[in-house]
Amino acid sequence: MSQNTATPEIADILSILAQRFPGNPFFKFIYLWEHITYSLLIVLALGLLAYFACRRKSLIPGRLQGVFELLAGGLDDFVRGIMGPKGGRYTSFIGTLFIYILFMNLSGLVPFIKASTASWSTTMALSLCVFFYVQYTAIKEMGFLGYMDHLAGKPRGVLAFTVIMPLFMFFLHIITELIRPLSLSLRLRGNIWGDEVLIGLLVGFGIKGLPLLFFNMCMAVLTAVVQAAVFCLLTTIYFALVLSHEEEVIE
């Protein structure tokens, strides 16, 4: 929840309801957790879309089924193109991330709705999901000791016998792994939050700001797509880095 009056914001439906019914505990609660509320609404909307797309599957798909099949096929090709055939097992996770983040980003452009990804709590939660899944995958692929050995860096060469270089690389990789969720979350949050602030500022200009507002809305759509793609591209690379080295990662 953002209540900073110095930041230009457009009123959303939850804040309007909370102000209209100040004594209602339900509206007060959902306004207090507005970004979680909006993220859950996106889950509901995507669930309904998936239901109607898969309700009557056919060899000759309708428009909605065709769009979903095209999107799923494109995401699978994207993931396999980076990780190789072995990456197919991660398509569902990475693809879900992309669709979920994209819809949350775009929801901020709908009147009276906020983008959940404008909140650091949302983007950090998504980044932590990626972080823990990558660590689980690394340990599953290499074993715990193998993963520790991987973090020490390869190839090591003559300097490996000094122990200094492997220890230095080990701690460097540990820091890198811990920084990744922070960088993922801040990059996504910063871009989406910046777009919302700029739109709120331009709305305050009234009719004079319409040309700039229209241009910024177009750029915000592009930003929403790019940021969802960047988040998932980096996630795919993180998975590729911990796959077994015996196989070709990139084909």
How would you concisely characterize the structure shown here?
The chain contains 9 helices and no strands. 71% of the residues lie in helices and 0% in strands.
Structural description of this entry:
This protein has nine helices and no strands. The protein is an all-alpha fold. It has one domain. The N terminus and C terminus are likely disordered.
Mean pLDDT: 85
Number of helices: 9
Secondary structure category: mainly alpha
Molecular shape: globular
The helicity comes to over 70%
Approximately what portion of the residues adopt beta-strand conformation? under 5%
Radius of gyration: 22 Å
Sheet having the most strands: none
| Tally of strands | 0
Number of structurally distinct domains: 1
Flag low-confidence runs: 1-5, 245-251
The run of helices and strands is HHHHHHHHH
Distance between the termini: 45 Å
List its salient traits.
251 residues; mainly alpha; 9 helices; 71% helix; disordered C terminus
List the helices and strands and how they pair.
Elements: H1 13-20, H2 25-32, H3 34-54, H4 63-83, H5 91-107, H6 120-142, H7 144-151, H8 164-203, H9 210-241
